[in-house]
């Protein structure tokens, strides 16, 4: 039996639907202000986006970022978060925050983590003492953080696991853990709990899990357990199957997705929200995300390239000084990129801006009902030749009525 539906601290206003694909544009009203959907959410590990201040993140137009419960729970810790009144105050961030449950971080960071019905058992990275993250503890931590969107603790295993019995157990356990999270949640009137659909790459398991999760009537719904090295066509089938079964008027969040082509295809398959550490992590390796692909500015071909990182980019690095920006050139990044912090900082600003701007353009195209044309233009810029288009993207988009290969 599903428990009584919980209150919701969000509203979802659908602004437009693509007449060909499953793409939607909406405004998500959260406790710390409106958020345009579709959206990419930068990941601010340890309550600071590596290389960016909250002001810079705000200037880039970010209105919803992601914090890690695992990191905040270790430092500053729950008592400090309670004393200061949550993570918004702790990091001077006036906009919205989404937190993960902490479970994925533990399973991926701590080799000795072990999942039981009670929760995730692990050894403290501080003193090696045994600890247990239960659904109740995860929600309690997220209640102290005060994030606008909180995630259920789920039993997540890699999608490429061939063990169907374990996959089924993880899916069913995630449903039982959602019920425990709902029971433990103290502030449903100001924090929105999202469920997480599991089931690996097995579409029947995904359908069963979706039905169970939808019956719990949480304010938003996530599709989890993906981005674990599975083939992209298998990924697309899972997203397409799940979104086909979800209620129209709730936000849909696909966890761990951030490559530009994955974002635009996932939107066409009916997803609204995404997060990934890749745009900021790759900046630390000298990589700039542009409409024509990723450029490694550590490459000597850029040593005398005095153009901006990307022509026409409105980020503070790329804008000229006359235009109120820094007027940073590719050659400058090339020369400072060995000195880790400066180059990484500048590229992080550019990459975050790129991702946020991409989603703004996606949203405009959906509202004006020209998303199929947008997709063709996007892939046309990214690959100089149609023969180079990734097969999975061509197939997935054909499945929702867009033929990238036609003129
Ligand atoms: Zn830029």
TrEMBL record:
Positions of Zn(2+) binding: 313, 315, 318, 350
Originating species: Lophiotrema nucula
Active site: 100, 275
Localisation per UniProt entry: Cytoplasm
Descriptive protein name: Queuine tRNA-ribosyltransferase catalytic subunit 1
Domain tRNA-guanine(15) transglycosylase-like: 21-381
RNA binding: annotated segments: 256-262, 280-284
PANTHER family xref list: QUEUINE TRNA-RIBOSYLTRANSFERASE CATALYTIC SUBUNIT 1
Any Gene Ontology biological process: tRNA modification
Cofactor: Zn(2+)
Coiled-coil residues: none
């Amino acid at each position: 039996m599903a428990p009584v539906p919980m209150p919701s601290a969000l509203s979802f206003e659908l602004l437009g639907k693509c007449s060909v694909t499953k793409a939607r544009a909406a405004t998500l009203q959260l406790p710390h202000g409106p958020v345009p959907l579709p959206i990419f959410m930068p990941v601010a590990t340890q309550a600071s986006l590596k290389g960016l201040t909250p002001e810079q993140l705000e200037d880039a137009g970010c209105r919803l970022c992601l914090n890690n419960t695992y990191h905040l729970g270790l430092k500053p810790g729950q008592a400090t978060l309670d004393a200061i009144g949550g993570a918004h105050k702790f990091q001077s961030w006036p906009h919205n925050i989404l937190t993960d449950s902490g479970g994925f971080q533990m399973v991926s960071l701590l080799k000795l983590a072990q999942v039981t019905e009670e929760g995730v058992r692990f050894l403290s990275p501080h003193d090696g003492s045994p600890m247990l993250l239960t659904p109740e503890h995860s929600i309690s931590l997220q209640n102290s953080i005060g994030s606008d969107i909180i995630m259920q603790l789920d039993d997540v295993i890699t999608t490429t696991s061939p063990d169907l019995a374990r996959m089924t157990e993880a899916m069913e356990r995630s449903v039982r853990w959602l019920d425990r999270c709902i029971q433990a949640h103290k502030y449903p009137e100001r924090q929105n709990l999202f469920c997480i659909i599991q089931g690996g790459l097995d579409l029947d398991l995904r359908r069963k899990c979706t039905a169970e999760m939808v019956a719990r009537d949480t304010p938003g719904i996530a599709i989890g357990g993906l981005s674990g090295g599975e083939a992209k066509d298998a990924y697309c089938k899972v997203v397409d199957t799940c979104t086909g079964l979800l209620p129209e008027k709730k936000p849909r969040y696909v966890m761990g997705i951030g490559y530009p082509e994955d974002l635009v295809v996932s939107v066409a398959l009916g997803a609204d929200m995404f997060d990934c550490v890749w745009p900021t992590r790759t900046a630390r390796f000298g990589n700039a995300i542009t409409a024509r692909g990723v450029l490694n500015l550590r490459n000597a071909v850029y040593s005398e390239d005095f153009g901006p990182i990307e022509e026409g980019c409105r980020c503070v690095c790329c804008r000229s000084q006359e235009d109120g920006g820094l007027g940073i050139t590719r050659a400058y990044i090339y020369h400072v990129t060995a000195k880790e912090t400066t180059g990484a900082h500048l590229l992080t600003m550019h990459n975050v801006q790129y991702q946020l701007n991409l989603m703004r353009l996606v949203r405009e195209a959906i509202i004006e009902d020209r998303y199929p044309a947008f997709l063709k233009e996007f892939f046309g810029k990214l690959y100089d030749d149609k023969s180079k288009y990734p097969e999975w993207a061509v197939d997935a988009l054909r499945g929702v009525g867009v033929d990238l290969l036609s003129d």
